[in-house]
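Practice problem 4.
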């Protein structure tokens, strides 16, 4: 990434803008709790969910991947790391409330400045995602189901090369109503054998930041390696990569 400075065409403001260069810097953040404390889940993801995601993304020649976890200093989300992150991927579930206000505000500030943010599965209820959405982000759920993931926006960049329907033999049921604001676009809809439907892939913009929520990824059943799912993750990273990154969120401007 290269830092350039130019004058925005707005009276009275000069902002430092960061524009994308060749490599996309991806940070995978995982609370990393179930895979350490529950043997059955350790078997599913011996390398941690973050490790599994890293394996998938690091095969892409235009991506460098860093993993961090909740118990690291500064909750794994230092200012320096976020400044050097183009897209942040987030998985959390059991310890949502352990995230401090300070960490939440730091991540949100970077999203507003242009950092991409991908919230996976139970990250629908993470403090960061709820803060970005401004709604309860609640849903219905039931363990032990299967899913057919339908692409409903095949021309969207996140759907490029993705089958029209991906079958997930095991996945946790998530059900509408999903209490989110109206998405910019719904790219995927999940149908569950238990009868529920769910907006499983939704895009949003907040400030300069592009956000993708993606439902699959329950910790008891390994799905991220399924080729169509991996393709969606890789596409989502490229889609969420900022072409413009502010040094800080925009402020009011006197004309
Ligand atoms: Zn789950």
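Answer key:
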């Amino acid at each position: 990434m290269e830092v350039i400075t130019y004058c925005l065409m707005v009276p009275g403001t000069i902002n430092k803008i960061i524009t994308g260069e060749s490599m996309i810097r991806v940070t995978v953040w995982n609370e990393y709790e179930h895979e350490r404390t529950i043997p059955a889940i350790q078997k599913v993801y011996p390398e941690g969910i973050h490790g599994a995601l890293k394996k998938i993304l690091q095969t892409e020649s235009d991506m460098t991947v860093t993993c961090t976890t909740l118990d690291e200093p500064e909750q794994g989300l230092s200012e320096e790391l976020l400044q050097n992150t183009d897209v942040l991927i987030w998985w959390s579930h059991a310890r949502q409330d352990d995230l401090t206000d300070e960490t939440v505000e730091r991540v949100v500030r970077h999203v507003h400045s242009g950092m991409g943010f991908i919230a996976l599965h139970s990250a629908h209820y993470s403090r960061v995602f709820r803060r970005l959405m401004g709604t309860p982000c609640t849903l219905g759920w039931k363990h032990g189901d299967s899913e057919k993931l339908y692409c409903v926006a095949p021309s969207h960049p996140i759907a490029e090369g993705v089958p029209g329907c991906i079958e997930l033999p095991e996945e946790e049921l998530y059900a509408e109503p999903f209490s989110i604001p109206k998405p910019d676009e719904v790219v995927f809809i999940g149908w569950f054998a238990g009868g529920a439907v769910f907006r499983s892939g939704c895009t949003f913009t907040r400030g300069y930041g592009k956000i993708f929520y993606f439902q699959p990824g329950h910790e008891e059943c390994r799905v991220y390696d399924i080729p169509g799912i991996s393709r969606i993750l890789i596409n989502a990273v490229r889609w969420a990569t900022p072409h413009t990154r502010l040094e800080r969120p925009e402020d009011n401007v006197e004309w």
